[in-house]
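To the structural biology subgroup,

Please find below the input and predicted structure for Peptidase M28 domain-containing protein, which we are adding to the shared reference set this quarter. The sequence is reproduced verbatim from the submission form. If anyone notices a discrepancy with their own records, reply to this email rather than editing the shared folder directly, so we keep one authoritative version.
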Amino acid sequence: MVIEQAAPSDLLAALTLLDPTRIMEHTQQLCAPAFAGRRVGTQGHAEATDFLVEQWKALEWETTTQAFPLSAPVFEQAAPLLLEQVTSEGEVLHTFVQRTEYCEHPRSAFQPEIVAGRVVAFSEEGASSRYRGAWVALDAVPQGAAFTTLADELALQGAIGLLTPLYITADGYLVKRIIAHAPIALPVLSVRVDLHAQLVGTRIRARVPVFAHQTQGYNVLAHRPGTDTLLANAPLILGAHYDGVGDDVGGPRLPGATDNAAAVAVLLELARIITQARLQFRRPLLFVAFDAEEVGTQGSSVLAAQLKTQGSAPLMLNLDGAACLNDAVWVEPGSQTEPLLQALDHAGRWLDIPLIVGNIASDQRQFTQAGFPAVGLSVGAAQLHTPGDTIERVQPEALRIAATLLLATLWQLAA
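Predicted structure (tokenized):
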């Protein structure tokens, strides 16, 4: 690691305390089966919340949770999905694999029982009687109210379900979607586009026990006071969302290692270094593990609104993706972020870490919308919202870069 001589000696001393192995261990813990992918509203998510509270309290940071009702529901499964191709006598010809061959559709009706029927291609000119007792394969999915209307019409004509086409990612997965929308009148499954076309004219049976779940989120806030009373109302916020899309019930695990367990583990390591080195900052520090980022950045929206109501004047850095090495660290600046960008630029020069402007759709945008200076950062992530986002994708060098860049930036903004 090449470090410019301009870097303060006490910062360099603090950087020697950095332990990428510990960051990796915390990342692995957040990806554990007990946390079940950390989808908001689940027991695994609640255990992840408790884990983070315990970690920060053990580091002697003042730690609280901020509960809030979700404004948008989460798409849940009551039991495993099922899709099988069968003969007219019920003999199973093929059992489809969830997440690589088919998956949920976020507007499906709740269908906990197995229903069987032939697959018929939808046609606007077809006789309505052809849909009775059939699964209807749509070439394209209408948007909004048009989908609701079509499903109502097909249900009246006796259809028992819908199949929609969905393209796989480059890694061979169907991306998981967890923002629930208003359910339509029929159960719906999304099928890999090539298999979707092949199902027409065959017979299937399926179970779609999915529903919209209204739940509550919990931001985890770890606070460390500053030494300058004039800055007491102007904290430096370092955030990273800890929620994920969650494991498939009865199907593959989706650990969410790069999105965003690794970034939260970086925050834990920075808190440990600050405690161990007994670092003092003039500006208060507020480390936040944001919740409900995967359902519309709701946790950051709640905190930003609260701080605005309180008349606070925070600076905000948000890390979404700290696990995979790109050519440079992505930076998304908001408005009035010159002090943040200057600090990041100096830190990058000190540590020989290149920075480029990038698009980071994450929690910092809620702070920007609230009128606060906020910048998003991403070292890199991989295979988001799929079973491929595992601990094996996390690179220790990426963790080191994220942690050192942030500590050097915090040093300039708060020390």
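Summary notes: The domain at 9-73+214-414 is CATH 3.40.630.10 (Aminopeptidase). The longest strand covers residues 111-121.

Regards,
Lab coordination
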